[in-house]
Amino acid sequence: MTQLPPPGISVDTRDLRVAFLSDSLPERNGTGAYYQDLVTHLRHHLDAVCILQPRARRGFDPLSMPMPGDATQRLVIPDVRRIRRTLDELDPHLIISVTPGPFGLLGPRTARRMNIPFVTAYHTHFAGLAALYWGPLRRRLANAPLQAANRYLCRRSATVLVNNSELQSAVRALGARTCEVMGTPLDAGFLTAAPSPPRRIETVCFAGRLAAEKNIDAVLNAVHDWPDLGFVIAGDGPLRREVEAAAARCPNLRYVGWLERRDLRQVIDGASLLVLPSHAETFGSVALEAMARARPVLVSAAAGIHDWPELAPGLFRLGTEETLSTALRRLRGYPSDAVAAAGAAARQAAEAFHRGTLAQWLEMLQRHVHRLQD
Fold this sequence. Notes:
14 strands; six-stranded parallel β-sheet
């Protein structure tokens, strides 16, 4: 059942039907979580919306292959007949591909067959990530098919959606006619009543993919440098064994593995600071989630979340030449009132940002559907 737009949302999208195509599992990574959250909120404002993506399976799957550099994530060959049948039943006004894999690549052709607009999203700068994993030869071999796929999507898209301004030049180089910088929504569970903001830094949390671009070494070094601080790491990825080994030898580190969103929220609520010291981070959704739970966050200067000045309250910046251990010393010197004020400001900023993001998405959907109709 659709609802009238809430306060702050001026467009009426109750007649629109939208389909998303994604190669990510619903909550396995940042892109998967982004669209799971977004679609949940859009269902209250659209006639119909669906997201077509891989289904979680256990055991051997002959129709999937490990992602380069991370065997914990897989590319899945879609059931094209199922997708076509679902889309014919939905009869969408707009198709949006959010990844450059087998599912996302179905978007342009399907939209052309149905004579509806097509939009793509560009969430990951793969060329930058490849530089962290491989040498020049392997990097070229890995980037070539991804660049070709992204070029195919960008050139056929009415607009390309990005979630930080620095990605605009990358998508224009890929052939995008226009691009739009979009905000990031929040899971409804993170918008429930938050615990009281912390007054001192006692427990530090990292949550995310355990991979080179997340700068896991900085977190493990801080665990060693600050034995009187508690640390908790949540996530999975190619560096899992290193984290498990550190947890086995460091009494102040607890590793909890990959978590469902509800369990992740509980871990964040039990921490007094979330850290994200990534070398590369197109946005940093988990930082926004922690802010929504009234937790101050310490995020590397490389993260796209800093592109949004309205999120500055509650955000501490990790300097480009500053180690995580040094930054923790700086934050531990803050008065308790300042730490609590940062947590309270973080919650307020995250709520407002979520509302603005939802309004932005609804306006974008209506504009591109109506542009074709006009």
